[in-house]
Amino acid sequence: MSYENIVLAYDGSMEGRRALREGAEVAVRFNACVHFLAVIKNNVGSAFGQSFDPRSLAAVEAADLQRILDEGVAMLKSSGLEANGHLCMGIRWMRS
Q: What is the CATH number for 22?
């Protein structure tokens, strides 16, 4: 069995860090490219109910998730892996 691409999700938690290390070990073993995924929750309905601008909430969450993605990608690259971060909301993807 061989893997060319591995998809990992990461939230910056201690459990997430352990899972990231384990995923990196598998990726190193198979010399696989790692795709790192973070998903922005769609809280537009509650945002409107509270009179907040959902775009600003999404921007704050996206900035936090981007920081987490960048951290995870750096950890993977330090292991010698090819790694890409992906941030998405619904079906839209932004590659980092």
A: 3.40.50.620
